[in-house]
Amino acid sequence: MNAFSFLVSTIFDLYLMVVILRIWLQLARADFYNPFSQFVVKATHPIVAPMRRVLPSMGNLDTASVVLALLVVIAKFVILSLMAGANIDIVTIFIVSVVSVIKEAGVLLFWMLIIRAILSWVSQGHNPIEMVMGQLTEPLLAPIRRILPPMGGLDLSLLVMMIILNFLNILLSQYVPFWANV
């Protein structure tokens, strides 16, 4: 991978994470007035707002944000294909884009769990990012805590969730041919 491909890929991946966070914040009904939530909304609003006029929400799912996530990944793969001089097959790019959005959501969840664990060790009080991460990850960790209660003051639900995420990543790498390369 050359330097320009790395730069293009990184920029699109970072913006994709922000778009996925917007979808996730709405699904989890996280605090909208939190500074971190405000950053995510302001970073995506100029593109999502016009799309919402055409694409209405379906229940709690903001379809405009989902379409934006897919468009970001499609644009990334089209630009990278053009830079490499490769042929553009829109069906393949669409399929790979759907898989890429799902995988990026899992990667984002994994890193949020890591950051949440580290913050739990060093945080002196409630900071806005820690509060939003709690609102986003708690619905996934609460069922694990019901099965596996804290042992000796240690909450092992984060570890169990990270093991589950890695298991799913490895499992899908075996059965989806391009999962590991996305």
Give the topology.
Blueprint: H1 3-28, H2 35-54, H3 63-84, H4 90-122, H5 128-147, H6 157-175
Helix pairs in contact: 1-2, 1-3, 1-4, 2-3, 3-4, 4-5, 4-6, 5-6
Features of the shown structure:
single chain, 182 residues, mainly alpha, 6 helices
Account of the 3D structure:
With 182 residues, the chain is mainly alpha-helical. It has one domain (3-175). It has six helices and no strands. The chain is globular, with a radius of gyration of 18 Å.
Task: Describe the structure concisely.
The chain is an all-alpha fold.
- Work out the radius of gyration: 18 Å
Number of extended strands = 0
Structural class: mainly alpha
Strand content: under 5%
SSE succession: HHHHHH
